[in-house]
């Protein structure tokens, strides 16, 4: 059984955003339009439901009807220790492209390596790792 999956109502950018995350994290991406779900509450080609399943799992849709588009304060998505250090550095760099590096991914005084980035779609990520790998970077 899996824990909670983040579900994001994008402001008309679900196809692009979920494709962006699939390009970074890999996995399987499924996208379904409003038309495919027989919905008439928006552009027929808007995403009614999209799901990325893999090492990182995300789901979302284009905000339609009474949905409010995603906004976030005081929340991060943590990828601490979810992959090898080289992979985490690559993800950090890719998420930061056209986004904002809040805290560079680097060795911290407590010995671990971590950093924070807000990507181009507004998601705030905490990425890092512990142990001997931290001292090597």
TrEMBL record:
Top-level taxonomic group: Bacteria
InterPro entries: Glyas_Bleomycin-R_OHBP_Dase (IPR029068), Glyas_Fos-R_dOase_dom (IPR004360)
Taxonomic source organism: Glutamicibacter halophytocola
Protein name per Swiss-Prot or TrEMBL: VOC family protein
Entries under SUPFAM superfamilies matching the protein: Glyoxalase/Bleomycin resistance protein/Dihydroxybiphenyl dioxygenase
Glyoxalase/fosfomycin resistance/dioxygenase domain segment(s): 14-125
């Amino acid at each position: 059984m899996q824990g909670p999956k983040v579900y994001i109502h994008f402001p008309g950018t679900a196809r692009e955003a979920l494709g962006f995350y699939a390009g970074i994290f890999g996995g399987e991406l499924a996208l379904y339009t409003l038309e495919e779900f027989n919905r008439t509450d928006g552009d027929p080609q808007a995403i009614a439901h999209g799901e990325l399943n893999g090492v990182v799992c995300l789901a979302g849709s284009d905000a339609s009807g009474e949905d409010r588009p995603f906004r976030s304060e005081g929340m991060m998505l943590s990828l601490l220790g979810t992959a090898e250090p080289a992979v985490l550095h690559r993800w950090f760099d890719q998420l930061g492209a056209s986004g904002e590096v809040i805290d560079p991914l680097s060795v911290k005084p407590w010995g671990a390596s971590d950093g924070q980035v807000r990507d181009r779609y507004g998601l705030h990520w905490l990425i890092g790792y512990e142990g001997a790998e931290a001292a090597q970077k």
